[in-house]
Amino acid sequence: MSRRRPQHEPEEQFLFSLDLTEFAGEGAQPESKPRPDASEKPGAPAEIHAVEGADPKAPEPPNLREAEAEMTRAEIAASRRNDPEYLMDKARRVFHRALLDERVLVVDPNSGVPSNADKDSASSIRYAQAMTDGIGGVPEARRAPGHGVRRNFERAVAAYLKSVMRALDVVRPGEWTVRRLGDVADGQGAQDASTVFEQYEHVSGLREAIAAHRDLRALIGHDSSIIAPDVVVARAPVADSELNATARLVDPLGPLASASPLRSAVQEKSLLHAVVACKWTLRSDRAEQVRSEARHLIRNRRGRVPHLVLVTGEPMPSRLAAVALGTGDIDCVYHVGLHELLDAIDPATDPAGADLLHTMVQGRRLKDISDLPLDLAL
User: Fold this and answer.
1) Cα distance between residue 207 and residue 203, in whole Å
2) Rounded CA separation 145/122 (Å)
3) Are 73 and 339 in contact (CB under 8 A)?
4) Do residues 150 and 102 lie in contact, with contact meaning Cβ atoms separated by under 8 Å?
5) Which residue in 13, 29, 274, 295 is a FRET match for 301, CA 20 to 30 A apart?
6) Burial of residue 338, with CB atoms counted within 10 A of its CB: 0-12 exposed, 13-18 middle, 19 or more buried
7) Neighbours of 244 (CB within 10 A)
8) Which residue from 153, 134, 185, 188 is spatially nearest to 11, judged by alpha carbons?
9) Residue ranges per structural domain of the chain
């Protein structure tokens, strides 16, 4: 078993963060044009007022809505990339930039194959190349060595969630934490969720009891592996003083509501809100691994089930379907570039792939990563 992280270890540095003050006041909508007077006849031309100082020969400004109606999703994203209107736009762009800078998404300088493509599949290469064209600026470089791709992908996803979820305090107030639990393969080792989160604290005691009694281990057959998800979202329990801030809700000395883990007076461990599995691609048995880990978390928890989701950069619809289709194991699959992937698959050349992709999207089993923070606020 890998070595556990010491409790005093400092929190991991995030790849990026966003300044939320940049988006303050963005809720105000631009002024709409005044409606025509009700006394005017329908269809009558509106009176034109000259603007002082305006050049009468100057061309009219382009109608952005009409222009974007003729664009693909990737072209719309590219047109807004330099001056994003909202936090979601910039967060997604910065997230993509982190994937490029950390050599998660690159193009091999020799073969020209993107790092999320299966080099033995022409369709995978074609879709991945179209995705990189839509994202733009993908460098020709060697991918991060060893476990670097997986680790950097997890770090980018964690940074993205942390940046956006800070702005969702209005709909999900509370003290939230987004973090990785470490790596089994690195020098620090993975931190066991049963030592951190309230829903799984009983697992460590059960594991020790089973390890000490061979007959019990043979009877129960409990999985002794540690519970170490890739990225987690957790909430700290709330003090009674905070619960009673606006109304006398709970009696600190009374017997009522004395078993709820939300109260820090009852227990002090964090509450696991979401588990985010991060798989850059879905080769071989990774789809079944995601499902198996989700079932492990469902079966061993005490209390409510946390959100169980997958974030991936896999371009092949058939491999995405291996995880996305069906219900019961994970909530949903989120793609790092779904809009670019939708534009990449041509129904004329790959009708089966296009139909499968749209089936997952319309069935809400496959979404873009921009949907993930809002879905976690549910």
Assistant:
1) 6
2) 24
3) yes
4) no
5) 13
6) buried
7) 13
8) 188
9) 66-376
Compute φ and ψ for 287, nearest 5 degrees: -65, -45
Question: Which residue in the block uniquely carries the two structure tokens 């060697």?
Answer: 142
Specify whether the CB–CB gap between 278 and 313 falls below 8 A: no
CA distance 13 to 19: 16
Predicted confidence pLDDT, tens digits, the chain (378 residues) = 333 344 443 445 667 777 777 777 645 454 444 444 444 444 444 443 444 444 555 555 556 666 666 676 666 666 665 555 688 999 999 999 999 999 999 999 999 999 999 999 999 999 999 999 999 999 999 999 878 999 999 999 999 999 999 899 889 899 999 998 865 444 455 577 778 899 888 887 776 666 667 676 666 555 555 577 899 999 999 999 999 999 999 999 999 999 999 999 999 999 999 999 999 999 867 888 898 889 888 988 888 999 999 999 999 999 999 999 987 789 999 999 999 999 988 888 899 999 999 999 999 999 999 999 999 999
DSSP 270: B
Pair of tokens at residue 176: 């939230």
| Domain with residues 66-376, CATH architecture | 3-Layer(aba) Sandwich (3.40)
Residue 255 carries which side chain, given as an amino acid letter?
P
Residue 189 backbone class (left: φ over 0; alpha: ψ -120 to 50; beta: rest): left
- As a whole number of angstroms, the distance between CA 282 and CA 66 comes to 38
